[in-house]
Design a protein that fits this description.
Layout lengths: L1 H4 L30 H9 L14 E4 L6 H11 L6 H9 L1 H5 L1 E7 L10 E12 L12 E9 L8 H17 L3 E7 L3 H9 L3 E6 L11 E7 L2 H5 L3
Parallel strand pairs: 4-5
Antiparallel strand pairs: 1-2, 2-3, 3-4, 5-7, 6-7
Bound molecules: coenzyme A (COA).
The site of coenzyme A (COA) has 22 residues, from strand 4, helix 6 and helix 7.
């Protein structure tokens, strides 16, 4: 399981057979910050989840822009007991691949005011792609690795986190040919572990001392393979 501990981050998507990546075309060049226009354009192309129970209509899932970063930093520092570097947040804006597999959840006070300002950031998922270790068959695609997933507690139980994960899983299958989804979860985070189990993840390993600043320090490695159900919206 050490390959998951110090992963080879995938910088570019693997060559697609004859599928043009659905979202890649909307991405800016690597050295350009994602601006609001691009973000708006991408918002239109977010995968739908036809077979999942829909979210409340006042919940919006959209890409992260430069203006969101201070709010995202605050959300993550509130909810996750680990400090994240400035680079971690900068990459969301500067790296089109990371931007494509990061998604925010916004709660609008009034659904009829969707386009207006009266909304707050309530949750986020930020992922990266990990190359699988070399295997004899070499058939495995990369893994969608969840670096962070967090939702403010008053907004839990609406399926927002499930929709965030499902939308990115589906996108990562289509755009990068991933074959699995994985995450490290703090061993004391019973609720978090249960949430993953309910969504088909299983424990594939433990890493002692993974969270150096926490007590206990261990991480549970949770993982699941993707399947056609993810594309059908039954993730
Ligand atoms: C992990 C975490 C994101 C889960 O939040 P959550 O609100 O429980 O998860 P969801 O938004 O997916 O809601 C799930 C519940 O909503 C219900 N629900 C209601 N409407 C729904 C809908 N439209 N679609 C799907 N589920 C819906 C589901 O039945 C589900 O209940 P269940 O888990 O008992 O089956 C949240 O607990 C959290 O932020 N924790 C702190 C950070 C953390 O631990 N992160 C994970 C480890 S890194």
């Amino acid at each position: 399981m050490t390959w998951l501990n110090k992963p080879n981050t995938v910088r570019e998507p693997p060559p697609q057979s004859n599928n043009t990546p659905q979202h890649a075309a909307a991405l800016p060049s690597k050295d350009k910050a994602i601006d609001q226009d691009v973000a708006n354009e991408k918002k239109q192309t977010l995968a739908t989840t036809p077979n999942m129970t829909p979210l409340p209509p006042n919940v919006e899932l959209r890409p992260c822009t430069k203006d969101d970063i201070p709010h995202l930093k605050r959300l993550i520092s509130l909810l996750l007991p680990i400090p994240y570097s400035d680079k971690f947040f900068r990459e969301i804006i500067e790296d089109p691949l990371i931007n494509n597999i990061t998604l925010l959840a916004l709660w609008h006070d009034d659904v009829s005011l969707k386009a207006a300002q009266k909304c707050r950031l309530v949750g986020a998922i930020r992922c990266r792609l990990l190359a699988h270790p070399p295997s004899p068959s070499q058939t495995d695609g990369p893994m969608l690795y969840l670096s962070t997933l967090a939702l403010l507690s008053p907004y839990r139980g609406h399926g927002i986190a499930a929709h965030l994960l499902h939308t990115l899983t589906r996108r990562a299958i289509e755009d990068y040919g991933i074959s699995s989804v994985g995450a490290h979860v703090w061993e004391a985070n019973e609720l978090g572990l249960e949430w993953y189990r309910k969504r088909g993840f299983r424990e594939v390993g433990r890493e002692e001392g993974y969270y150096r600043r926490l007590e206990p320090k261990g991480a549970v490695v949770m993982q699941r393979d993707v399947s056609v159900m993810d594309l059908l919206g039954k993730g």
